[in-house]
Amino acid sequence: xxxxxxxxxxxxxxxxxxxxxxxxxxxxxxxxxxxxxxxxxxxxxxxxxxxxxxxxxxxxxxxxxxxxxxxxxxxxxxxxxxxxxxxxxxxxxxxxxxxxxxxxxxxxxxxxxxxxxxxxxxxxxxxxxxxxxxxxxxxxxxxxxxxxxxxxxxxxxxxxxxxxxxxxxxxxxxxxxxxxxxxxxxxxxxxxxxxxxxxxxxxxxxxxxxxxxxxxxxxxxxxxxxxxxxxxxxxxxxxxxxxxxxxxxxxxxxxxxxxxxxxxxxxxxxxxxxxxxxxxxxxxxxxxxxxxxxxxxxxxxxxxxxxxxxxxxxxxxxxxxxxxxxxxxxxxxxxxxxxxxxxxxxxxxxxxxxxxxxxxxxxxxxxxxxxxxxxx
Length: 376
Ligand code: UDP
Ligand code: MN
Fold this sequence. Notes:
Number of strands: 13
Number of helices: 12
Bound molecules: uridine-5'-diphosphate, manganese (II) ion
Shape: globular
């Protein structure tokens, strides 16, 4: 056995979109090594087919496998969450060495040199630089290490409830012992750094090899205009636009044509989108959803589509109370007042907007269009 591989993880079809774009980004920069993806039963068979077209290995793993002693122990700690599934990467013993990359990363330049590093090499976390960020790390598959980490997890847990806290506790000498295990930040550039330290991004941004869209900056959750092909970054983060745009360009070029409506949630909805053409009803519904998500993250297009007039129109339509001529919105006085009132009205509109909004659920997956019993 032997060989090197890039490994990622997807537990649902939405994260699989990230995995697909990541895989294409790796192919685009001409990596010499194999691509492997761990999937859980939450990934549809249609999506697995598409993953198999670009990954050389699509390995099903279980989130909580009752036949697995180590995972049984973990069962007592359900809150440790789905990112523990990542630990299964140590079981890929058909490879000699691997680099784990989160599904929300994008490789922008060839970085096959990472395989020269040893376990456990990783870049500092932007929040606490004495910890490594577990979105990109070099590791050596080993059943023994897998057993040891899961036993450790069962005994000690994770200080942050996720894989990062656990792995930092397990590989606890990373901060001090061996500087060669510290990957330069350009191998895991957390997208938030582009605006928290803009001068550094200006200076070194050209050298970036792997972008990591941590937290709410997941590219597939941003508002994307299907007509213009432009993605809108989260509020206050304009510097993210070119990075998000790169993700969407690869998505539109390589991934979108492969999507099927049989896929779950967001992936299935995106499959019904046409690009660069007038919008279909499904597309309008999807874009409404994306906009709602942006709204929940504080991105409100006050002057455009979220303007009071549009909200008012929507309320009237949704409540089926709209007379043939819609009433004009109530008059307001100062600009500030208008803004806060708009916000309140917007809340009402959000509540009433049941026919187009697609409901959000955990894990960033979404269901079919709402208007069903449990919609709010
Ligand atoms: N992941 C997944 N499904 C989930 C959450 C996470 O497949 O519902 C995987 C995916 O590979 C993801 C990684 O676990 O990139 C870590 O989670 P995430 O990237 O959301 O964490 P962050 O980097 O924002 O801390
Ligand atoms: Mn991540």
